[in-house]
Prior knowledge:
Two copies of one chain form a homodimer. Chain A is mainly alpha-helical. Chain A has two domains: 2-83, Arc Repressor Mutant, subunit A, CATH 1.10.10.10; 94-187. Chain A is 65% helix and 7% strand. Chain A contains seven helices and three strands. Chain A has a three-stranded antiparallel beta sheet. The termini of chain A are far apart. At the A-B interface, helix 1, helix 4, helix 5, helix 6 and helix 7 of A face helix 1, helix 4, helix 5, helix 6 and helix 7 of B. Chain A binds a DNA duplex (28 and 28 nucleotides) through helix 3.
Amino acid sequence: xxxxxxxxxxxxEPKSGYDLKAEFxxxxxxxxxxxxxxxxxxLKRLEDGRLLTSESRPSSRGPARRVYxxxxxxxxxxxxxxxxxxxxxxxxxPYLAQLALMSELPEADAAGHHAARVRADFExxxxxxxxxxxxxxxxxxxxxxxxxxxxxxxxxxxxxxxxLRLTALIQWCDESIQLLARKKRARA
Amino acid sequence: xxxxxxxxxxxxEPKSGYDLKAEFxxxxxxxxxxxxxxxxxxLKRLEDGRLLTSESRPSSRGPARRVYxxxxxxxxxxxxxxxxxxxxxxxxxPYLAQLALMSELPEADAAGHHAARVRADFExxxxxxxxxxxxxxxxxxxxxxxxxxxxxxxxxxxxxxxxLRLTALIQWCDESIQLLARKKRARA
DNA sequence: TGTCACATGTAAGACGTTACATGATTTT
DNA sequence: AAAATCATGTAACGTCTTACATGTGACA
Lengths: 188, 188
């Protein structure tokens, strides 16, 4: 599965399951999520498959940490995945399924109301991403993406993906709200 | 699960599992997918829960069809789902995870190449959606979305969602390709 | 006679979420 | 003394995909 390779990729330097969970919640939340229990289970499976090794290390605070590092085989698997072409698949969008079925509700502009609520959600997410982008620039001490490179540049690209996507979707909400409201007026 | 309600919604008139599968593959593929076996299993479960009833009907060609229709309870459940607010959650995007980890590959512009391949994929999908939109207009005998209403208008909105989204993502690809290529030149 | 479209299902396994269980150290 | 953070794990359940199995009727 994809999570296998993502963990392998994040383990360019040795980390614990706890560290990895934190990375998911911080920098990857906008395009990938993974449960803590899933991460631990997957790490164990990867170790069984000799793609990772682990050792227990005392922690400065709290219980001992199991620190994983990838093997040559692990790195190879990751590289094959990366070189094997982009994995693009349409994902499920429940809010669109809801919109498609909105004519089941008796209210006149249920769909428009729905779109307005979706818009509010998107705006929140967009604000988070824009803050992330700012933080990235500050952390790296740069003023624009041209000064970034390597991992950081790639991270910028993923943030930018979210920004452009959400901006377009907010436009879509506005357009839909208008279109659906016009319909409502026309019927009245 | 969401599939429950989507099936309930598509069953505004009686249909068989086969019909439903066809609907998923035609009009919903751009925001939802469902396997044939999952559809049949879900229909059975919904019938067990008294949200659907079914009867076997002879088919004009092929074996008998099991035709489902929803009960009052089924309709109620659907309406609650629709009125309960939009379900927006970030989905997993493997191609972005790949991009984020691309610095693991030795090639200079692996990420740019990746983005270019993603772009090609998006363009194909966009062309399909634009064709769908055209077909919708022709089928309904209209020249613009203002003349649509009800289910058809909502369907138009979901198509438009895909069009705006993909257009923005193609722009993102172009921007990323440029940015990543500039980096490559700067290093050379 | 073969193959396409119609039509329904089972089984196994992969993947993901939620809830629970445990316990140390640091901060308030 | 309580709460937050650090840290790892198990169990149960729910969802989704892949593969397999079966059979009819139409058409070439």
